[in-house]
Every structure is written in structure tokens, then in C-alpha cells.
């Protein structure tokens, strides 16, 4: 079977290369930009990120609570080493971002997968499983890979549940807000952390989806009660330092955010990406009709679809390979109850593709 993979970041032609290059050139020649002794990262950049999140995600956080990392996945490694020990329980979404689960398991944690539905993770099942859980990890604004958003009611129930358990032990929610920027049909719900009144949500995000490969910086917003502990750990363990980022890059990103280039680029890309989604949806509908089921709400940079056909996964994936259709089975996202004939399609990669011809070719290959 030919498994096709894809780069889940924004397509290169949609990136604000000129604005980013200008910001980098402004700071690249300054020799002082090689020196940065702040273990949490360049403070003006942390302030710029705080301001950006307040404008776009309704998050109110001081820069003292933000820690920067040189790579988008480093925050998960860091927080895993900080919080988890052998045998600790971690609740994860099923399906979900398997790298996170693998990271938690590498520290000896026991994973408790919880199924999701059209409103997100099932809070009643979380309640049953969460006794003595150390972490509840989820992506409430753009569930990976389904694209489902956690409903307002379940957000409230989840915060109440976690807050109640924290009376007896430390249970943190890790809110993975990756890929929250591209929402095409409705207004984004505020980030979960914006409603947290008990200092129990760790917010995780990066610039991977919006700016990679130009920028791959990741960051955390820490609860106030973790800041001193994390600062101590960073200062005394160079391997954990999140600031292995050139100071010139941090200053460039600071200018880039403060000048509004990221928000402008996202707003310009939204209608373009949505049109790519609609072209793909229409092309599949034309060829397959009711034999294809799309995920309920388009968001992010990919969509999920399920084939209602007698063709098996090997036949579907091999036909996609022959047609050059990027199609990724969702089976690797599941901890249990793996479905068949369910796939991710990165529609943002198909901006300049004749989707009618592409899906016609795929349909022909599949039914040879």
C-alpha cells in the first residue's frame, strides 16, 4: 500500500515572504542579536504574542507566563518532562494527535483515550476516566484530525470537571490550539484558557500552521502556579532552554506580529483556502455523490472524508497514489476503534489544482 503524506502547514505560495524577509533583514546584521539571556525568550516577542492572542483568541496573559521554543513540537516534550512521571494517567482524544500521545507515553504515562463526537470530546466519559488523571490533553478549537470544535456547553463542563478534581490533586488541561486560525463558516469560539478561572489550563500553540517554513517557533502559556517551577528548571538545565532561537529571528517575529502582518495574511488566505475546499468538495460530490461523507464543518487546512464503498483501503490509497491525490488514512490518529475508508485530504495544497480533473482521474483509477 502506498501511504501518501503531506506537509500540514500553509502552502508556500500563501506565505508572506516579502514582509518576513524585510523583518529578518532589519535585525540580521546586528551582532548584539546573538545574545539572549532570558530563559523564557525575548520579552518583547512574548509581549507581542500576548497582544496577538488577546486580539485574536480573547486570551489575557502576561508575557511572564509565556515561554518560547525553537520548534513547534518542543513545548509538548518540555511540559511532559515537567509534569509527568511513570504511571501517571493522561486523557487523550480518540482520534487525536498521536505525537502528543507518544510523547506522554515516552515518559511512562498511561494513556486513556476518549472518543469524540460532533460536539468534541465526550465529557461524560472524561468524568468517568479522569479520577487521578494528571493531564487532560485536547484540541478544542480544531480537533485533529476531524476538525470538530468543542461545544460551549462541553467547554464549561470540562473546566468545572478539571477544577473540581484539582481540589484533590493536580490535574492540568493542555489546550492544543494549533490550526485554530482558519475557520470558514462561523466565528471562532474563544480559547478555552480564556475562561479558565482556576489556573489549570496550559495553552500550547506554534506558528507552524501559519508561517512554516519561515517560522517554526512554538510557545506555551503557563498557569501562574507553574511559572516559578519552570523558570527554575530552565535556568538549571540547559537542555530544556526554550530559547535556542536566534535573537534576530525573535525580533523579526516581534515586528511581524506588532505590524499586523500575520493577521493580514490569515484574512487574505481564508477565502482562497475556502475556495480550494469548495472546489474539492464539489469535485468529489460530482463523481461520488452520496458515496462520500465529508466532515461536518470545513476548517483548518485539511478536511476529513469517509468513503461509503465496497472498495477497501488498499484499493483506495493505491488509486489515490496513481492519480496524485494527497490522501492520508486516519487510522494512525486512532488509539482504538480504528475505522476503515476514512481519510484526510489537505485541500489547502490544491490551490492551483483542477480538482474536477483530479477527482475524475482518481474515480477512474479506483474503478478500473
Describe what you observe in this structure.
The chain is 40% helix and 15% strand. It is α/β, with parallel strands linked by helices and 368 residues long. A hairpin with a 2-residue loop joins strand 3 (110-117) and strand 4.
Concise summary:
By secondary structure, the protein is of the alpha/beta class.
CATH superfamily of the largest domain: Type I PLP-dependent aspartate aminotransferase-like (Major domain)
Named CATH topology of the largest domain: Aspartate Aminotransferase, domain 2
- The structural domain count equals 2
**Which oligomeric state applies?**
single chain
Q: What is the string of helix and strand elements?
A: HHEHEHEEHEHEEHEHHHEEHEEH
Largest sheet at a glance?
8 strands, mixed
Please bin the fraction of helical residues: 25-40%
**Spatial order of the strands in the main sheet?**
1-8-7-6-5-2-3-4
List segments where confidence is low: pLDDT < 50 over at least 5 consecutive residues: 1-7
| Terminal residue distance | 17 Å
Strand content: 5-15%
Structural class, judged by helices and strands?
A: alpha/beta
The number of strands is 12
Amino acid at each position: 500500500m502506498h501511504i501518501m503524506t503531506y506537509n500540514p502547514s500553509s502552502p508556500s505560495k500563501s506565505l508572506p515572504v516579502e514582509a518576513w524577509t524585510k523583518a529578518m533583514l532589519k535585525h540580521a546584521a546586528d551582532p548584539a542579536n546573538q545574545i539572549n539571556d532570558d530563559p523564557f525568550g525575548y520579552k518583547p516577542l512574548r509581549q507581542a504574542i500576548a497582544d496577538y492572542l488577546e486580539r485574536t483568541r480573547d486570551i489575557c496573559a502576561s508575557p511572564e507566563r509565556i515561554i518560547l521554543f525553537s520548534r513547534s513540537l518542543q513545548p509538548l516534550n518540555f511540559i511532559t518532562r515537567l509534569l509527568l512521571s511513570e504511571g501517571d494517567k493522561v486523557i487523550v482524544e480518540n482520534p487525536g494527535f498521536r505525537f502528543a500521545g507518544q510523547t506522554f507515553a515516552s515518559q511512562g504515562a498511561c494513556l486513556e483515550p476518549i472518543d469524540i463526537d460532533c460536539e468534541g470530546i465526550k465529557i461524560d466519559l472524561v468524568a468517568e476516566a479522569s479520577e487521578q488523571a494528571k493531564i487532560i490533553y485536547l484540541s478544542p478549537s480544531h480537533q485533529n484530525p476531524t476538525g470538530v470544535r468543542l461545544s460551549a456547553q462541553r467547554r464549561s463542563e470540562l473546566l468545572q470537571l478539571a477544577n473540581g478534581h484539582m481540589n484533590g490533586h493536580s490535574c492540568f488541561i493542555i489546550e492544543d490550539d494549533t490550526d485554530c486560525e482558519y475557520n470558514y463558516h462561523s466565528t471562532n469560539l474563544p480559547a478555552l484558557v480564556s475562561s479558565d478561572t482556576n489556573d489549570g489550563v496550559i495553552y500550547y500553540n506554534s506558528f507552524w500552521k501559519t508561517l512554516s517554513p519561515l517560522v517554526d517557533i512554538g510557545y506555551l502559556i503557563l498557569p501562574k502556579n507553574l511559572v516559578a517551577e519552570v523558570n527554575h528548571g530552565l535556568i538549571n538545565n540547559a537542555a530544556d532552554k526554550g530559547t535556542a532561537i536566534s535573537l534576530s529571528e525573535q525580533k523579526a517575529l516581534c515586528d511581524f506580529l506588532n505590524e499586523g502582518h500575520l493577521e493580514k495574511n490569515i484574512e487574505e488566505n481564508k477565502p482562497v483556502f475556502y475556495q480550494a475546499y469548495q472546489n474539492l468538495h464539489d469535485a468529489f460530490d460530482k463523481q461520488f455523490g452520496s458515496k462520500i461523507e465529508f466532515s461536518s464543518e470545513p476548517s483548518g487546512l485539511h478536511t476529513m472524508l469517509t468513503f461509503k464503498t465496497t472498495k477497501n483501503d488498499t484499493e483506495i490509497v493505491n488509486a489515490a497514489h496513481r492519480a496524485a491525490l494527497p490522501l492520508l488514512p486516519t487510522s494512525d490518529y486512532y488509539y482504538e476503534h480504528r475505522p476503515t475508508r476514512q481519510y484526510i485530504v489537505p485541500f489547502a495544497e490544491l490551490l492551483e489544482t483542477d480538482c474536477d480533473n483530479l477527482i475524475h482521474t482518481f474515480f477512474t483509477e479506483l474503478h478500473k
